[in-house]
UniProtKB/TrEMBL annotation:
It comes from Actinomadura vinacea. Belongs to the type-II 3-dehydroquinase family. Pathway: Metabolic intermediate biosynthesis; chorismate biosynthesis; chorismate from D-erythrose 4-phosphate and phosphoenolpyruvate: step 3/7. Keywords: Amino-acid biosynthesis, Aromatic amino acid biosynthesis, Lyase. This is 3-dehydroquinate dehydratase. CDD domains: DHQase_II.
Amino acid sequence: NRVLVLNGPNLRRLGVREPDVYGSESFEDLTALCRDTGRRLDLQVEVRQTDDEAEMIRWVHEAADERLPVVLNPAAFTHYSYALRDALAQLRAPLVEVHISNPATREEFRHTSVVAGVATGTIAGFGFMSYVLALQAVAEIVAERHR
Ligand code: DQA
């Protein structure tokens, strides 16, 4: 059961970037947490990060073609990338949108997600735990399908 955990722009700078908002742990810490969670849930988790919209869209096409579930933190793409949304609309397995912070409590421009409408669901505001909860949701849905 492969799952892609895709991360958008600036997320490789976790720990350095606005630690008051995103915490003091690094992207490597996040990667380790996702892999450990995957092991616990019997999911083969692949964590990736890019600052490049084109690369992100290629990864989504790959997930669509291979019918892979996706846990996605689109970062700032969340708020404006219709190209990413259109790519995500092609997915045929669950898509969980995640955010470390709770965008609803922040600046006005973060209150809109162009991704939410094509996601299975969204988990936001729980720090790195948002990813753990998202992977749990994926594991439940995958298990449900095999029952
Ligand atoms: C974020 C929230 C976005 O508004 C922001 O652009 C990010 C990170 C989060 O995980 O809280 O880069 O997606």
